[in-house]
Amino acid sequence: MRSFDYSKLAEKAWNMDIVNLVAKIHECKGRQDLFFRQKPVKLDRLVEIAKIQSTEASNKIEGIVTTSTRMKQLFAEKTRPRNRDEDEIMGYRDVLNTIHESYEYIPVRPSYILQLHRDLLKKAGFSYGGHFKSAQNYINETRPDGTSVTRFVPVSPADTPEAVERLCNAYEQASASEQIDALILIPAFICDFLCIHPFNDGNGRMSRLLTLLLLYKSGYNVGKYISIEKQIEKTKDRYYYVLQQIDLGWHEEKNDPAPFIRYMLQVILACYTEFEERVGLMSEHGQGGTAYDIVKHYALEKIGKFTSTDVLAHCPSVSRSSALAALKTLTEEGLVIRKGSGRGTFYVRADSR
């Protein structure tokens, strides 16, 4: 069985682009921490938006979907799930809430991973929720001609409990040693988790939830405010591509996690960048700036179409009613143009014509 020796990561000479990505994220984390200390701005709306986007995006990657309207109603508890997809979506929401609220008290142990998996699938009523896989699973690839081939065979069901135990122990030891940057160690752990593929179902969703958990425990909590899962879903073609590379030679301990590490670092950095853009609006106008000023700044810097939902997401210090009023004023002033109607309503800058 694979040894899960993460000490090799400390000895590896990483490419400069990976080193630079790690350094940039460290800088962003420092600025984020400073922002929270010096500007106690209320970010509740960012948190709620990120939760919805994370739940929607992570499930969408797996083909589990509902409408945006239903998603908002489900999160607001104004309706109940209508089908199995919505049951699974709500299961993800529950686990995400648990991680948001209690990550400090969730150790990286098999028993806790099993409990998170149980809660992920509880609402859908799957009997295998909270249990390691009972049958061999396979990573298949569909060729251009439509035929399917097995590209990788994960760890067998019999060996899975021991493999996950070793994986968790190796991560905890490596984390405690502080010889490997968490931004390198976490994606490496997720690579191994996916290659073990410990569950009958839910491996991808669990890998993304565990990514958030480990990042939060290491002090990188940007995922609370900007959805990491949404960034992955937006770049899912590249996500699938790097996932196809991580298992080559995995059983022989010859696989290279660098492509997945590089990809995840790019995702994390993109989230920090978006966070800074959003709180930048709050900081710039936080001392006496009006809702109109904040919305106007966003609208006149925006290229292409945007909706009232976009305005609310990017101007979290502005209430919904104030944002809509500001958009109405900007439209009346001729600075933005309203197009469409009903749910299809969007806005563009007047100077874009």
TrEMBL record:
One Pfam short name: Fic
Domain of life: Bacteria
SUPFAM superfamilies given in the database record: Fic-like (SSF140931), Winged helix' DNA-binding domain (SSF46785)
GO molecular function, one term: ATP binding
Protein name stated in the entry: Fic family protein
Binding site residues for ATP: 201-208, 239-240
Location of the active site: 197
Source species taxonomy: Bacteria, Bacillati, Bacillota, Bacilli, Lactobacillales
Residue stretches making up the Fido domain: 108-266
InterPro entries, alphabetized: Fido (IPR003812), Fido-like_dom_sf (IPR036597), Fido_containing (IPR040198), WH-like_DNA-bd_sf (IPR036388), WH_DNA-bd_sf (IPR036390)
UniProt keywords, alphabetically: ATP-binding, Nucleotide-binding
